[in-house]
Amino acid sequence: MTGAILVGVDVGGTFTDLFFVDTATGQFRTGKVPSNRGDEAVGFIDGLQGFGPVSQLAAIVHGTTVGTNALLERKGARVGIITTAGFRDVLEMRRRDRPHTWGLTGAFAPVVDRDFRLEVPERTLADGSVHTPVDPAAVREAAIALRDAGAEALAIVFVNSYANAANEHAALEVARAVWPNAHVACSADILPEIREFERMSTTALNAYLQPVVGSYLSKLETALGEAGFDGRFHIVQSNGGVMSTAAAGSFPVRTALSGPAAGVIAAAAIARVAGFADVITGDLGGTSFDVSLVVGGRTQLAAQTTIDFGLVIRSPMIEITTIGAGGGSIASVDVGGLLQVGPESAGSRPGPVAYGQGNTRPTLTDANIVLGRINANRPIGGKLARLDTDAALLAIEAHVATPLGIGVMQAAEAIVRVADARMAGAIRLVSIERGHDPAKFAAVPFGGGGALHVGALIRDVGLKAALVPRYPGVTSALGCVIADVRHDQVRTLNVTLDHMDIAALAAMMHAEARAARDVVESAGLVLDSIADSFALDMHYVGQTHTIAVPIDLDLAGVDLDHARVREAFERAYLASFSRLLPGLSMRIVNLRTTSIGTRPFFDLAALAPDATASLAHAAQGHRPVWFAGAWHDTAIYARLDLPVGAEIAGPAILEQPDATTVIDPGHQARVDAWGNVIVTVAGP
Amino acid sequence: MVSPVDPVTLAILKGRLEQIADEMDATLFRSAFNPIIAEAHDACHGLYDALTGDTLVQGTKGLPVFVAAMAFSVKAVIDKIAEHGGLAEGDTFLFNDPYAGGTHLNDMRLVRPVFRDGRLFCWLASVGHWLDLGGNVPGGYNPKATESFQEAMRIPPVKLIAAGVLRQDIVDILAANSRVPVSNRGDLAGQLNALDLGERRFAALLDEMGDATVAAAFVAYSNRAERLMRAAITDLPDGHYSFDDVLDNDGIDDVLIDICLDLTIADDRMTLDFSRSSKPVQGPVNISTATTISGCYVALKHLFTEVPANAGCLRPISFVIPETTLLAATAPRPTAGYTETILRLIGVIFGAIAKAAPARALAGPFGTINALSIAGLGTSGPRWVMFSFFGGGLGASPQGDGLSHANNPISTATIPPVEILEAMYPVMFTQWALRPNSAGVGQYRGGLGAIYEIEMLEDATMSLLGERGKRAPFGIAGGGPAGLNRFAWTTADGWKSPDMISKVTDVKLERGARLRLETPGGGGFGEAARRNPDAIARDIRLGYTA
Question: How many CB atoms lie within 10 A of CB A464?
């Protein structure tokens, strides 16, 4: 496949970022256009057309926050649940937890109200035997009732269906016959794993997202088709791998952290190549700041994620911590006289006051403009000719300076400092509070605004450096281009090792691998190789938690035997715990299968500045910028024109079309061989 | 005298120390055998002062009630050594004596010294709720016990490991005195795993940061907790505030038991006086002084969430707990049901503080753990004991409605999934639901309690130790009380309930029999007439209220 052109598209709340690469020549281009909330296809197609005819593209890989936003803002579909008689409240009862260890306030509203959760007679026992066959008439009646009450998606979740899905599948068939759309699923097809609350929550949230993500993707596909696109269209999953849109339509819950995951993948890859294995990525977008830890070059996967109290998704995801602080975050003074920045956000529409789109309350971006950190004459995104600094000043004056009784410049600086402190807090949460010494980590800020705040991240958290990628504003889009294709599966076995038919296990592993590999292959992307890996979740009989036991299965057919599984278990057990329990039998609870298709290597050196770059060429003169209580005459550079090896002392501002990097007084910047800017505290 | 530590190091070190305790918690949760530890997290780990046993650092995932109790446990070991001497590097003590270390006989404590350069630096400790240690009732919650001997065997602090050598004779004694020796063996291994990991991690931290810095940081943390607690108390209006509540009975005599508090705020000090409470009782709802203080600590932490969890925060608090009350029990008063007494104790502190500081008010939580034990001889396998605690509603507050189906304030325990319980034991749940009309009414209503109904798939015997069958969780500021706890099981003559309301033991259930537990919700806040009409309509539409 020569001349294959690939585009990564990351649609955020404020901007749609694009990364275009010709895999034959290694040539690339970037793009950024405003997102069009509610009709993202407009910005999406606009952005693509910026690279020429859409028909020339071989593949588009998309990172999306449509799922995340629907979950956080509780704007998913109206879902109906059909469940086992006696169990409709499982979703609302959770695992009998509470939001905080200390303090007893806070309530919980499930995504499916109680009157949309109906029960039918049926029961499967823990050993998989059917105690009561499902009553098809009752299922039909319940499905019709839910449909007529306005449910747009249906989830069928029966107790013990992980052990035997016959009742669920029978119910699924009956329900499909009366359901007006394709948004019907049963829990064994979404997560065939023991623990009814986690399975019901994951299945319900999948249904909650299905109509939203489904209609979003089909709108995009239609628009792409009309624009002449006939290549492959893919979605980044929360685990950092890529899947087909068909898979995303069936498992939308796996897109919950799609956009953020793509950014972490790219930031980790860029930093690893540049020699920084331990980094904390920080994505500052229009509405939020997402932080993720990368240790030894590896992103951290969590088996289960709690999106909000009681909203549990059990599916492997990159661990990302989010706070509501972004460029669009609104600054206000509360009744107690305390300055707040966020979580309320002006988003992309109307956006900051300086955008002149109707918002009159000052945002973090307005403060950065007033302080001279953002160039009002060269707004990012390219749709506006210039930013209205005077309007931003007036807004800060009225809403912050006057109530606090301070000057307008002091007020603007205070807004930035409060936002800095919130970002620093989020970084502390994933580093210091988990016992990692921040002095060993570098920050990798990305997103439109991250590089504006690197100084504070170094100073306030004590990080050793910051690495600003060459194209910080399109990092997530770059991640879409380089992310591997990945599919994870789980199957609960719940058999003791002594009773396990090992030949049957090997056969199941082959079958699971085949199925996972099919999903990866059907994505149709160019891959260097596909690797399958297996882990058995095992424990001693009597324990409830399991450990992941990696198992190699030579697909050519080397026989697996009991002794090999036992050895692998004991090895994994000793890696976690200091003592074995000889004489006790072991149980295999789950088989986990992962298939990863490795995409062709994209040499990040292609991003580096070319030989024509020079410091003199990059220098754009000076302008006053406000730092620490005073105006400083500050050197301005065109960041993309800086040569490899350039060294710049702060204060300085590095400008580029998709982002602005601020080098504080007392800090220095250096351009490395890949075009990244490395910011450190200036030496003595 | 130690030199002060800079604020950045203090911040980093705090995270790293808590991480060690958290990893100890996680190690035990993941390797434990009984679900009370593995799923319900009835365990705790931390670092304790070398001389006083005071809590220095505590895991954030362990059981809140152990946070203060563990200091008494470590102190019991310190006292034993003071008396008998003989502490050596590589020792690990084991005991479950509730009169010395607090809580009840099921909680097995392991305490291990940390030596640096041949000198005691501090203690590591682990506590976990073991499933069964003998006694009359499987699981230990014997509602008919009148002496600790009917609850479980009692072990004073003994060396399980002497200078690095495990004493197998003690392990053998433990195994011979339990209905579920394999489970206990697994839990013991899990606690040792946790101590081994903590010891390794802490030694590495001391090597890196220096012993003196860490020691100085410990002092700084407890001073900070004390400062914040004093500041919080100073904000409350000086005065006397009283609040009383009751327990249904002690399981022996069906007579109400008083838990009474007189709370005094004076400047930056608080006094909690329980003198008006009932005398010690025959049945298993007595608690030791250590447990009483732990309960007060839990209540105050829920009300003053900004104060960190270490010994410093108790310095501004005075306790009056006379030995003439059931709150200062001595051997061999039975204590298995300590949770019920401690929950009532926490409730009266909420009630008294609601009078002093309405903005911090919390209405009464459901207030009983409903310790249910179902055991069988195992027609199809080995002897089994299914032991569970159940959820209920939390009280409303000025912030809003209470949470439905929550855990108790003394716990962060999650409930084991139905599917895990059914895979482990021959039972089938026939209902697992919210309980309509169980919450107290008010401007904000309480959270809902729950209904659990279970069918036996094999013959079994059953015991329950619960509460709140006579006096419901209280509302505040005009809010109504919640529903009462209810329990029943099927017999040949239909449904039957316990004579002692929520306490019963040795009930024979035949295959096919069912039992049904309905738990209380939480109390309401504010006058019901002030509730938003939309919220009332919604409660009716969703069937929360009939």
Answer: 16
